[in-house]
Amino acid sequence: MVSSLHEGLAGIATLDPGHTADALRALFELPVSSTDPARVLSGNLTECTPSEYRADAALLYGTEPNRFGVIVEVQLKPDQDKRMSWPAYITNLRARDECPTCLVVICPSRRTAKWASQPIEIGHPGLTLVPLVIGPDNTPVYTEVADAVGNIGLASIAAITQSKHPQINEILATLTAAWNVLGQPLAERYARYVLVSLTGEPQRELERLMAAKTYPYQGAYTEGLLAQGKAEGKAEGAIEKEVAILLMMLDSRSIKLSEDQRQRIVTCKDEALLDSWVKKAIFANAADEIFS
């Protein structure tokens, strides 16, 4: 089942490839740069086989002959099937785009991060995959605005992975101030993704911070409320949340909607129909495929 936390983290990873490069270089010293040409690729890594392999995000940095591919997966809980499919993700992207490729797994929980970081033995002697994991134990605690501005993608992810940290309120205050330095469209999308990824008191604290001041990205506040099934602070139910998840999925995959298509989604009150659209969106490359 697709969740707002899953889609929020995937959205952050693909929102600005340059910001993601800064995060990957800071955590893992990968050979990617925020100044390199970069683009978001299709996450469909299926070859001509019956199996369907689709990563949460795929990024390509640099130009030939120095390109570098990055697969990003969001993992909320252990799933043994992924230990079988992750090696295929790497080899398929490597073959498709003819470049070195690595796997990065974002895990909000320590338990899942520990599981995901375990080596995967392929079987061939000397061939072992050790996923690069982003989790609570290796994401910084940002309490200085300048530091957060310098690596805004990582700071946004860290606010989610560090949501149980005793300084979470200070972390969120720092992050909202850092977003204020960004241009409005980018800041608004970061704010929306983080807001819907948080739950409980951290989410309420971020709502309070955003409601207390007028930020350029203030529009994200009401979208965040919708995404959590709230209106005027009261729970509205699963339909509103399903709508928000679908819109986030399309946004993070750069699938453009016409105004009629967007209105069709936001006015839909049929939960089963919305669920079918969400499932189609996982594999869609264009908006028309969702409604067919």
Q: Can you put this structure into words, describing what you see?
A:
The protein has 292 residues and is an alpha/beta fold. Helix content is 51%, strand content 11%. The protein is built from 14 helices and nine strands. The strands form three sheets. Strands 1-2-3-4-7 form a five-stranded mixed beta sheet, sandwiched between helices. Strand 3 (68-74), helix 3 and strand 4 form a beta-alpha-beta unit. The model is unreliable at 224-235 (pLDDT under 50).
Query: How large is the radius of gyration?
Result: 19 Å
The average pLDDT is 85
Q: What is the H/E string?
A: HHEEEHEHEEEHHHHHHEEHHHH
Strand content: 5-15%
Protein name: Transposase (putative) YhgA-like domain-containing protein
In short:
This is Transposase (putative) YhgA-like domain-containing protein. By secondary structure, this protein is an alpha/beta fold.
